[in-house]
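Appendix C reproduces, verbatim, an entry submitted by the partner laboratory led by Prof. M.T., so that reviewers can inspect both the input and the predicted structure.
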Amino acid sequence: MVIVGIGIIPAVPPLIAAGAESVNDVAFDAECRTGLPDIFAIGDCAAHSHAFADGATIWLRMPTTRQMSSRGDHRRPVDYYAVSWFWSNLYDLRRQAVDLSISFDEAIVRGDTGARSFSVVYLKDGRVIGLSCSTALTRPRTMFRIGNWSREGQT
């Protein structure tokens, strides 16, 4: 049986009342399993302590957690490492980002911020941990490459 909840605010109180661990939302392991038997958390209700975020609890987009829960459901071992990405409209500027720029110690700005056509590469200890760019510079291949660099710890 699959129960799907769709909406703006994740409805997690019934899961928490049933015994699922909570870190503001439903916590899950590397295979998207909650602490409840045969219950998987995916989407915006799912929180996970992630290695690339220095153990911080993060929320990943639904397709990523859906793929991981599917693998876990079939009892196949998984190496959970998802590149986080998101976009946001800030007034009239669309911003896209890949991975997390939390606790960065260096930021390299490329492009023209005055013209709102720029990108920022975030580094920590000399390795790439994220990229943020305005829509004018959004290039899917570049975003994907930066995600791989951050996963591999490239400098």
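The two ends are 45 Å apart (CA to CA). Additional entries are available on request from the coordinating office.
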